[in-house]
Amino acid sequence: MSKRVSMTGRVLIIGVNPYVQISTDQVTVLRPGWRRPLPVLVRINEGPSTPWRTNLTPTGDGSFRLYLHGGMRSTASVGVGDEVRVELEVDSDYLSNPAHQTPRWFQAALDADSKATESWSKLSPSKRKEVVRYLGALKSRDAQERNLQRALSVLRGEPGRFLGRNWIDGR
Questions:
Q1: CATH number for the 4-90 domain, one of 2.40.30.100, 3.40.190.10, 3.90.1150.10, 2.130.10.120?
Q2: Cross-sheet strand order for the sheet of 12-14
């Protein structure tokens, strides 16, 4: 049986990213000594009926952040500054293999651009996964092309913004 943690916390924000701080003690209940991203099932303010699947992100001091995407905040009817009830449980069904396939159009562009490919290979697996997940969710051809050009530009080492962050030297 998986252990659970129930807690209250305030929705804080870093840049454009809303989150709830999760203490070292709370994570220790779930996984003692854990220091990497931790896959969890989460419910906020007792919802939704099927918990969200996400990762707790380590901060480096032993505590973690539970980042709240728009769907989570909307379902729970919360915003930055609100106090929330959080229920966490380790996601024992999580598989570490890639959940998203690299879009063919992105892979073809990488294959044609050696500088971008070199930078791509130097990115951490989590950053590559974030890029692939984002690009794979794009629906329109215009959005795909626009974001492909941004991705290739920053991967070539050109300074710019992509995925809500500044990129310098392909990172």
A1: 2.40.30.100
A2: 4-10, 83-90, 38-44, 47-58, 64-67, 17-22, 12-14
Surface-to-core class of residue 57, CB atoms within 10 Å of its CB (0-12 exposed, 13-18 middle, 19+ buried):
middle
Model confidence pTM above 0.85: no
Burial class from Cβ neighbours inside 10 Å (0-12, 13-18, 19+) for residue 50 reads exposed
- Structure token digits, residue 123: 């990115």
CA dihedral 14, 20, 25, 31 (to 10 degrees): -100
On average, the pLDDT of the chain sits at 92
Tell me the CB-side half-sphere exposure of residue 108, using CA atoms within 13 A.
Answer: 4
The string of pLDDT tens digits covering residues 45-100 is 999 999 999 999 999 999 999 999 999 999 999 999 999 999 999 998 876 655 67
C-alpha span between 75 and 92 (Å, rounded): 24
pLDDT tens per residue across span 19-45: 999 999 999 999 998 889 999 999 999
> Would you list the domain boundaries of the chain?
4-90, 104-167
